[in-house]
Design goal:
single chain; about 170 residues; alpha/beta; 7-stranded mixed sheet; 7 strands; globular
Length: about 170
């Protein structure tokens, strides 16, 4: 089931899905396209705060899957920007296959990669479940900085995840 809401309204869902599970975070984003940077931003902040099981997949998340699956995590959590026609900063969270099948939730630049990631993870680490956490963007124009509303949501997500995640 795909969950939609604010960080605060989804904390219990994050805990239900992620708490006690060995989790690896793959952030995705483009620093040159404003809010599209949010997944990379969150991965970098997690690393800065001492969470070791995160990687900034930048523009090619599929290139970083081996780093994640070699750890045999219970959950691979992919974080990226989405365009779903929601209020900027709204969170979309669910199993990756449900996100891929959804017609209303479109990762801004990486949807084709996610189908490939899902198949590869299943092949390399069959027990690893793939989840997706998307943040509705405000502005992904080239050359703009990430908007303050998206950065604030990103910081809240970092705090929520640090209080929930178990390292591999």
């Amino acid at each position: 089931m795909v969950e939609v809401g604010t960080v605060e309204s989804l904390i219990s869902v994050f805990k239900e899905v992620l708490e006690g599970k060995r989790t690896f975070v793959l952030g995705v984003g483009n620093e040159l396209r404003g809010d599209d940077f949010i997944g990379s931003y969150i991965a970098r902040k997690l690393l800065e705060q001492g969470f070791k099981n995160a990687v900034d997949g930048d523009l090619s998340p599929e290139s970083f899957i081996d780093i994640a699956v070699k750890e045999l995590p219970d959950i691979l959590l992919i974080i990226d920007a989405v365009e779903a026609g929601l209020k900027p900063g709204t969170i979309v969270f669910g199993k990756l296959d449900e996100i891929i099948e959804s017609e209303i939730i479109v990762p801004t630049t990486h949807k084709p990669s996610y189908s490939m990631i899902k198949v590869y993870v299943k092949y390399r680490s069959p027990r690893t479940q793939c989840y997706f956490l998307g943040i509705q963007v405000k502005d992904v124009s080239f050359g703009v900085k990430m908007s303050s509303v998206i950065e604030n949501v990103g910081n809240k997500i970092v705090n929520a995840l640090l209080n929930t995640l178990t390292e591999v």
